[in-house]
Amino acid sequence: MPNTAAGEPAIHVEGLRKAYSGRTVVDGVDLRVDAGQVVGLVGANGAGKTTTVECLQGLRRPDAGRLRVLGEDPVRHPERVRALVGSQLQDSGLPDRLRVEEAVRLFAGPQAGDPGPLLETFGLGHRRRLAFGTLSGGERQRLFLVLALLNRPRLVVLDELTQGLDPAARRDVWRSVARLRDGGTTVLLVTHELEDAQALCDRVVVMRDGRVVDSGTPADLVARHGGEVTVRFSLPPGRPAADVDDLGRLPGVTRVERRGDAVALHGRRPAIAHAGAWLVARGGEAGVPFDLAVDQPDLEAALIALLDAPAPPSAHDRQEVA
Ligand SMILES: Nc1ncnc2c1ncn2[C@@H]1O[C@H](COP(=O)(O)OP(=O)(O)OP(=O)(O)O)[C@@H](O)[C@H]1O
Description:
This protein is of the alpha/beta class. The chain has two domains: about 10-225, P-loop containing nucleotide triphosphate hydrolases (Rossmann fold, 3-Layer(aba) Sandwich), CATH 3.40.50.300; about 230-295, 2-Layer Sandwich (Alpha-Beta Plaits), CATH 3.30.70. It has helices at about 50-55, 80-85, 100-105, 115-120, 135-150, 165-180, 195-200, 220-225, 240-250, 270-285, 300-310, 315-320, and strands spanning about 10-20, 25-35, 40-45, 65-70, 85, 155-160, 185-190, 205-210, 210-215, 230-235, 255-260, 260-265, 295. A six-stranded mixed β-sheet has the order 5-6-7-3-8-9, with helices on both faces. Strand 11 (about 255-260) and strand 12 form a beta hairpin. It starts with 10 loop residues before the first strand and ends with a helix. It binds adenosine-5'-triphosphate (ATP). The site of adenosine-5'-triphosphate has 10 residues, from helix 1.
């Protein structure tokens, strides 16, 4: 059993580089995932996310970099890492006729516990005898989670966790991942579903063209890249223009738009609180407009801004310039 020293991250990658046929697709990635965290890896198509997690799981050999996964080196001991990490299968991963209980037997290693409680936890206890091909999309995803967790891994890699699920099934799977985190399992989530990332992740790492362009909590990323908030409301008819000038001077407000009685304040997050305080101070509780609303940027807005920004030069370009 490998020992991760106390405080040692579950995943620690420095300078990971990988090329296919001379084309660099992972270009000096650093990544740290602390034990017990849920970390999302997001980015455009072809950014190098899957290649990165395949290198981490000992499924691909990197060209350069220092990698430690649960205290093991996936380059020197890929088989040890594969035995420690739970991975989620893709949808085509099981034959249609295989029953749930047969799949569980097939995937159980020496470390596996009794699968019964796991199947119950993921709502599949009463589905054991059903063939994989007859399960709904949500049940399939939950079965993949059961199989990823069967051998009691301390780290699970989940790729496109909720792809194709309806909103109820997606929330079901979210609850399952939250339970995993509560139980101390470390989760690396590769996803294009930013709602998943926002709901589940302690930290999100954004990749573009083979490199990490930023990382942080979803809230940090939104604050850094999401752009302005907008506070909208209607003033009571006949409110003097001077009032609106006042609004423009509130801390955090950068711009005021007024069309008739409809007002939109744009600015940084503190503008929300100051606009609320201003409204209460002017009219008391009764003066708070019935249509008061706040538009806040989300992780999607932050990601679009990050991925649209001009690309910094790659390591390759930098070498050519030097
Ligand atoms: N086995 C391979 N041989 C050659 N090129 C590959 C191979 N696997 C991936 N690539 C290329 O490497 C680049 C990075 O692919 P990768 O799958 O790691 O990106 P990704 O961020 O996971 O993309 P997506 O979000 O589309 O799944 C892509 O341009 C892809 O076409």
